Amino acid sequence: MMARSAKGMCGFWVLFCWFISGCSSNTLPGATVQSSLTTSVENYQYLVGPLDNVSIFVWRNPELSGTFIVRPDGRISTSLVEDVPVSGKTPTQIARDMEAILSKYIRDPVVTVSVTNFVGPYSEQVRVIGAATNPRAINYNQYMTLLDLMIEVGGLTEFADGNGAKLVRVVEGKQQTFELRLDDLIREGEISANVDILPGDVVIIPEAWF
């Protein structure tokens, strides 16, 4: 009886391993990499993203004006037109788009757009992962530096390998990796190790091997 039970268990594990190996043979495609429009700290322009509040003012047409929440699909629906794509655009670009749309209904529309509840698209957020005190995604601000970013995430953990950290940045559609010296910057106070951060940057901080 024991031999039969053991044989049955052996057969089960063979089938289980076959099933697992068959299921794991497929691979998911790589993530879609979105390049930020910002290539230097001087040319930064805020881009609207999902969950932002967009205020649209149409001169002399208060009934067409209002504040709208950008949906997760990056669009808004106004009182006159639906499904207007706004994510990934500047407020000025949205204003010009709305003028073109509204010109079909009113004569010479003049539109201004402002934004509140700044979230922005994922391509503009900065991410810190690994051995930071509070790793997370952060909304980018113009002239943000590595030191500013580390203050936002609470610095390094006790076991972080700060000088082994990497910065991943998409440059002209291709990912590039740069070395960082976080130990020198944070623990030694070497300001020369501070660098500019751009929208979409990812900072990866490994743990030290003892």
From TrEMBL:
In the record, biological process GO terms are: monoatomic ion transport
State the compartments where it is located. Answer: Cell outer membrane
Report the domain of life of the source organism.
Bacteria
GO-annotated cellular components: cell outer membrane; pore complex
The protein's predominant localisation is: membrane
Q: Where is the signal peptide?
A: 1-25
Query: Could you tell me which Gene3D superfamilies the record lists for this protein?
Result: Outer membrane lipoprotein wza domain like
Q: Where is the Polysaccharide export protein N-terminal domain?
A: 42-116
Q: Where is the SLBB domain?
A: 125-205
**Family per UniProt?**
Belongs to the BexD/CtrA/VexA family.
> Under what name is this protein listed?
Polysaccharide export outer membrane protein
**What is the source species?**
Rheinheimera nanhaiensis E407-8
Taxonomy of origin reads:
Bacteria, Pseudomonadati, Pseudomonadota, Gammaproteobacteria, Chromatiales
